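Dear colleagues,

As part of the handover before I leave the project, I'm documenting each prediction I ran so the next person doesn't have to rerun anything. This entry is a single chain, and its sequence is reproduced below.
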Amino acid sequence: MKICLRYLSDPGYQQGIGKELGVSQATVSRTVDRVVNSIVAQSNEWIKFPTTNHELMEAKRIWKSMLNFRQQLV
């Protein structure tokens, strides 16, 4: 998991990341592939999009409060 997180945080060369973490480029490649595929396989369970206008407005409210978004001028 650490290998995948390191790669996703700065997707440079796999060989360089492997050297940094003490593993081969092939290990970096396999690890990233397995972790990302696992996340994608479970995404329907973890990622839920609002289906009603009320759910959409509530999601917007939560994100604005969590991230301190400013109101956009239109």
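The chain has one domain: 2-67. The two ends are 42 Å apart (CA to CA).

All the best with the project,
I.
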